Model the fold of this input.
Amino acid sequence: MRYRSKRYRGLAATAVKTPEVVAVPEAVKRLKQYATTKFNQTVEVSTNLGIDPRQSDQNVRGSVALPHGIGKTVRVAVFAKGDSAELARAAGADIVGADDLAQQIKAGTMNFDVALATPDMMGLVGPLGRILGPRGLMPSPRSGTVTTDIVGAVKEFKAGKIEFRNDKGGNVAAPVGKLNFSDEQLVENINAFLTHLKSLKPTAAKGTYIKSVTISATMSPGIRVLA
Done:
């Protein structure tokens, strides 16, 4: 059984006493009341979707630029060469390369949070899928991480654009900011994420699409919110 601190158990007991589903602004307000640690916790939105992840046409993957970023430095790696590589560096990419970057990844060195690629590099990137895929780092046109506009992509992800995909249980989770964000900033970020997620409903998915939504911080219980 996973160990929970006395602080966490106390917060969880409070959450159990108020288990109702609430609107996003109220959920953010309650989450702030759980902010009893000395470090600035990450706020995350977790959703359970009414999809069948076994069906390729029901998988959900995308990216969205949050209005207020996520409150952390995002390390961006770019697969590019020639002029595209120079543009990526000028735009602020942390790592830029081609064969050399692929070799680093094969050796187990992945000092980045997001991987981007220009379309002409996918022949090189494709074989890395077995390494990058399980870590959620595989570039994909669907998530905007394979693009001809490498400058725009680097700037967006450095500014806090997030990438997400469903897991085998049909769940999608994403960071949406820090607890030191204002209530309004967190509400706007959460709503921007949920609005974009709703727009990605697969046509093959039937019934209720977003079955549940929970927000939580790094060391807090979850709070159910209205979908």
Summary: The CA atoms of residues 180 and 203 lie 38 Å apart. The beta strands are 42-49, 61-65, 76-79, 95-97, 114-117, 161-165, 171-178, 210-217, 223-225. The chain has a mean pLDDT of 91. The first strand starts at residue 42 and ends at 49.
